Predict the 3D structure of the following.
Amino acid sequence: MSALQPARGTHDLIGEEQRRFHRVAEVARLVAATYGFDEWQTPIFEDTRVFSRTLGETSDVVTKEMYSFDDRGGDSVTLRPEGTAGICRALVSNGLTQSLPQKVFYAGPMFRYERPQKGRYRQFHQIGMELIGPAEPLADAEVIACGWDILKGLNIADDTVLELNTLGDKDSRDAYRTALVAYFTDHQAALSPDSLNRLDRNPMRILDSKDEADRRIVADAPTIGPYLTDPARAFYDKLREHLVRFRVPFVENPRIVRGLDYYGHTAFEFVTSKLGSQGTVMAGGRYDGLVAEMGGPPTPAVGWAAGIERLSMLMDAAPPAPSPVAVIPIGDAAEATAIEVLQSLRANGIRAEMAYRGNVKRRMERANRTGARAAVILGDDDIANGVAQVKDLTTGTQEAVPFSQIASRLK
Ligand code: ATP
Ligand code: MG
């Protein structure tokens, strides 16, 4: 039988890659905590309606990318393609809509049926944050600043640029939509079939098309600026002022729209030129309508998500695990004492290992091979005297150390 491979678009995380991955989530969690965000975990699968109702009928995710299936009881469930809908569902299900603001951080796997390529997978992982409650642009600036601080904490901020846009309020979007439909209708002969489809249902989505011919047409499309209402413009002005105060550098890009339908006002992406066409590492915006779609009261909210794979591709190699201490009994009788020493090292937070078999020579060889920094050698005579030989494997020096002092010596 041929060896089985991971399912297409999935990958195993082992060794350095896993450490790097872990570091992304850990740094993000710590930085988010300094901003007062607490972590939530929602289920990896949800009732399909959590996504189909909210992400927008015409979004790529809903039309092409969801892993949905009927379970054995006949209920339609979907592996979560993103985190925000589940968090809003959880806010409503847990009766937290009256306890605002809620400041939520999350990290975990997401699933989309996509064509796998570098930086694009079927099971991928995101960190993300949602600030639910405040309608003020200060909230938008704060979640962006937190994202920026996370990128700084990972040492990759210099590789990214924050691109900012506004999608305005509903009146702005309605006016803009009319202008876009007029423009794209004039050019419909050259649009891709996907974009023609979007023309009736959600013309703003065409701005996000990855099709080359579409992009040439998009380049000259009207921008939202002239269609912004006064309140929408004031909101955007305030956001930019705040970003300056938070010292987050940005450029404006009127082509930034979000892939999902529930966004308004703020839309932003942190992009890099280092990952080819998969250049968006962190993306987010304001989604004031989503909680109501989920059956809660109208509730403003803003947030972002970032792909852990893309972040970790930008990072330097993660530091290796600390090198271990090898505990080496000489002969079978010493093994009982060696286990006690081994466990006392571990109880003191020291990475310690003991081989499962072999003579002293073999065990020393293994200790060197695994990069051990020290060996604790236990022979019968030393045990009788309550000491062990502690050998520093980098310098080669060795001395007898009483049992009670071994851990502190090796800390
Ligand atoms: P794209 O335009 O690249 O398809 P998107 O708009 O679908 O991105 P979002 O839904 O905004 O992406 O997800 C936020 C982030 O999650 C992306 O910026 C990216 O870093 C990451 N991401 C999205 N889809 C994938 C995937 N299939 N594989 C790896 N990372 C992904
Ligand atoms: Mg996508």
The first helix runs from residue 16 to 34.
